[in-house]
Design brief:
Number of strands of chain A: 9
Largest sheet of chain A: 7 strands, mixed
Number of helices of chain B: 6
Strand order of the largest sheet of chain B: 2-1-3
Order of helices and strands of chain A: HHHHEEEEEHEHEEEH
Distance between the termini of chain B: 12 Å
Helix content of chain A: 25-40%
Oligomer: heterodimer
Shape of chain A: globular
Number of helices of chain A: 7
Number of domains of chain A: 1
């Protein structure tokens, strides 16, 4: 591969070898808030796919460990990303580009009440809901089976909370994710949250996998 | 603007890449940029950065490192677009490029005619960013 001079198309074609590279030009010219968010979500999806490749190595990872891995991958793409930054509290993941700020809250799924706590932290503690931060995200690390069913129940749970002007829509790129929108209590403006499940279920049922489980019990 | 020291940036690069090849690549490029800044070098290509790091590292690692250095995290490199028409070079602003990518159309900066397959004729080059110029 000659890289003396790379055209936009050549860069895009290299995406399959270096994840995120095809979006590189779009990332650095993303001067518009919506574009920044759109590209960030594409990058996060790619990172999640990578993390999900080895669930067996993730069974004992804490919320912080998993979130720090996401932060590190974002940093390597060039993002100004921080974990545990002081931002009305200690946000799990903070991504900044100029004045634009995206905040992510992360939870290992144990109960819907626990996810709800994350939702409240994100919407009532960390975010202002102003024009430079009208989006946020919740990473839901799921070690149980059937992540889709868990996400569906989470949607129903949110619906039962009767948030002001609440609505939700599917994520086009990754079906298991979804977006919710409601009126932010602080700003009174619409606040959109991407709910990002991370599938970490690992219970192999082949002979070798069964053996390991049996020998542990 | 916040002024960083070279040492702070080196520490950040260490933190981000640990033992990966990009660590040495980024530091080699940082050294080159500090040097080039004093020489007012303003047109850096992928090829020139390839020469800076030598043959010890593969292109894949180099491209990932360049992408990182252009980002907000360090922002040592300022990425720019240029349209190359035979031997003629024309700068394309970020706004023009945003529009071109949205509409799928880019007009020739001189003739005003539509450039066919502009994505094959627009290239990226780099300049030392203001962070490099203001290093403490």
């Amino acid at each position: 591969m000659d890289i003396e001079n790379l055209s936009l198309r050549e860069l895009q074609n290299l995406e399959r070898f270096i994840p995120g590279l095809g979006r590189f030009p779009s990332r650095f010219i993303a001067t518009d808030y919506n574009k920044f968010i759109e590209i960030l979500y594409d990058d996060i999806d790619d990172i999640i796919y990578q993390i999900q490749e080895n669930p067996e190595l993730r069974q004992k990872d804490s919320e912080d460990r998993l979130t720090i891995d996401i932060r590190d991958q974002l940093r390597r793409l060039g993002y100004d990303a921080a974990h545990d930054s002081k931002f009305g509290g200690h946000a799990d993941l903070l991504v900044k580009k100029g004045n634009f700020t995206w905040i992510g809250e992360a939870k290992i799924h144990s109960s819907y009440n626990y996810l709800w706590e994350g939702f409240l932290q994100l919407t009532t503690r960390y975010s202002t809901g102003d024009s430079n931060q009208r989006d946020g995200g919740i990473f839901i690390y799921i070690r149980q089976k059937n992540a889709s069913a868990i996400v569906e129940k989470w949607k129903d749970y949110l619906l039962s909370k009767e948030l002001t002007d609440y609505s939700y829509e599917a994520s086009e790129n990754r079906e298991i994710s979804f977006f919710s929108t409601h009126k932010h209590e602080g700003s009174g403006q619409y606040f959109r949250i991407k709910h990002i499940p991370v599938i970490l279920y690992f219970k192999p049922q082949d002979k070798s996998g069964r053996g390991k489980i049996e020998s542990k019990s | 603007m916040i002024v960083f020291s070279k040492q702070q940036i080196v520490e950040q690069i260490h933190q981000d890449w640990l033992q990966k090849p990009q660590l040495q690549i980024c530091i080699a490029i940082l050294d080159y940029l500090v040097h080039s800044s004093s020489q007012h070098i303003s047109h850096i290509t992928y090829g020139s950065l390839r020469k800076v790091v030598g043959k010890a590292y593969d292109n894949r690692d180099l491209l990932a490192a360049i992408q990182y250095l252009c980002g907000e995290r360090t922002h040592l490199l300022e990425a720019k677009f240029e349209f190359i028409d035979n031997e003629n070079y024309f700068d394309i602003s970020d706004d023009e490029m945003i529009e071109a990518r949205e509409t799928g159309q880019l007009l020739h900066p001189e003739t005003g005619k539509l450039i066919r397959d502009f994505e094959d004729k627009v290239f990226i080059y780099f300049q030392p960013s203001s962070v490099v110029k203001n290093l403490a």
